[in-house]
């Protein structure tokens, strides 16, 4: 059996499901938290023995929605089954409104090193459209409280929200720069099937910003953050020196990882598995002694190589084509000869010596390139 060096724990609880969110979560069901933790413990016991790792990521949902005692139990469980060394990266996704002194103390005591805070915007009207329950003042207070306690603070921002102007986004980016987090993630708003935003857009009650404005916002973030000391290292991610998200780099490098919780996807021994997305079904299955796995797929060598190619090209430094061929057993030309030649001729990709990478032009349309390479 292989020994992945990363683990992901999914915590499906939220106060409210925002209109754009299609993640695995339950809102207003705090009565399930204790049973979820019991089920999670059962799932982790299937590992048979603790598995040391160097990165752990608690995502959601909102891990910090858990009350302090239950948050402490979650972290203790994870640390037992995925023991991490003193220099590990341990990330927790957080809602600014949850970061009171008690929860911050629990996180710090458990060895968390990195907080990823779902800011989304500093603008009250934009936050209202996104159905977020915090304000700019709450964000600032949360970051000030958290900063001395953790090695890295990361802020998530969303652009391209209905009613948003270029000026709104400029101010969001400027205020983020002013607060000087260690890491920033910027995401263009997407309308996912099954969300209320999808329905509202279809009915005409929610109007997306123009494609020109969305591209302008993305470029503005790239230029402003780069000029202010953050390195743009992946399509959506920017980091100060030594503050890249090491856990996400495991995914982008095509490395294997453990995962637990409802809807969690793991990649171990060349096999991908995904747990059932329903929190109640996940709990019922585990507490009845059954497997929580809903889907399983073993990737062949070519599929693995294609995934690695796409993940590698999402990173701004691109891929070393010789190293890639040596590691994966396929050359870049064998996997994507015609599309890659076309992307090079269109100026969407560039090759310098042995490195193949996105150009600025390619960055702006990167999501449309990947289906041709998979």
Please give a structural write-up.
With 374 residues, the chain is α/β, with parallel strands linked by helices. The protein has 2 domains: 6-252, TIM Barrel (Alpha-Beta Barrel), CATH 3.20.20.70; 318-367, no CATH class. 41% of the residues lie in helices and 21% in strands. The protein is built from 15 helices and 17 strands. It has helices spanning 33-45, 68-81, 101-109, 124-129, 136-146, 166-179, 196-203, 211-227, 246-252, 279-287, 301-314, 321-328, 332-345, 360-363, 366-369; strands at 6-11, 13-14, 26-27, 55-60, 89-94, 114-120, 152-159, 183-188, 231-234, 237-239, 258-260, 265-268, 271-275, 293-298, 319-320, 349-352, 355-358. The strands form 4 sheets. A 9-stranded mixed beta sheet has the order 9-10-8-7-6-5-4-1-11, with helices on both faces. Strand 5, helix 3 and strand 6 form a beta-alpha-beta unit. Helix 1 (33-45) crosses helix 10 (279-287). The mean pLDDT is 93.
Notable characteristics:
about 20% strand; nine-stranded mixed sheet; TIM Barrel; alpha/beta; 2 domains; about 375 residues; three-stranded antiparallel sheet
Write the layout of secondary structure elements.
Blueprint: E1 6-11, E2 13-14, E3 26-27, H1 33-45, E4 55-60, H2 68-81, E5 89-94, H3 101-109, E6 114-120, H4 124-129, H5 136-146, E7 152-159, H6 166-179, E8 183-188, H7 196-203, H8 211-227, E9 231-234, E10 237-239, H9 246-252, E11 258-260, E12 265-268, E13 271-275, H10 279-287, E14 293-298, H11 301-314, E15 319-320, H12 321-328, H13 332-345, E16 349-352, E17 355-358, H14 360-363, H15 366-369
Parallel strand pairs: 1-4, 1-11, 2-3, 4-5, 5-6, 6-7, 7-8
Antiparallel strand pairs: 8-10, 9-10, 12-13, 13-14, 15-17, 16-17
